[in-house]
Amino acid sequence: MKKAVWISYDLGIKGDYQGLYSWLDDHKAVECGNSIAYIQFEVKTDLIKELTEELNSNVDFKAGDRVYIVRREVDGLKTSIKGSFIKGKRKSNPWEGYGTSVDNSIDGNE
Length: 110
Prior knowledge:
Elements: E1 2-10, H1 17-26, E2 30-31, E3 36-42, H2 47-58, E4 66-75, E5 78-87
Antiparallel strand pairs: 1-3, 1-4, 2-3, 4-5
């Protein structure tokens, strides 16, 4: 079964973009902005496991590389959008502190 997946990637300056781009091209990915692509991925049983294994076998990931996927999940009558890091982890928000809201609480929990 084919699943719609958006892939966001950050491989740094010396990342294996050739390996990733070859894989994306083989999957007829569509460019969706800087470092974001859309694919239809053929899944047998477990999307995250199969996608991770396939990317690992085609891309030479280094420490610090990040790949985040967004997909639609259907559970009975309920549909939800979910996101997961399949490589790396979340960083601090670069925009933190730019907003206009002010936290007037003493400990941030009010």
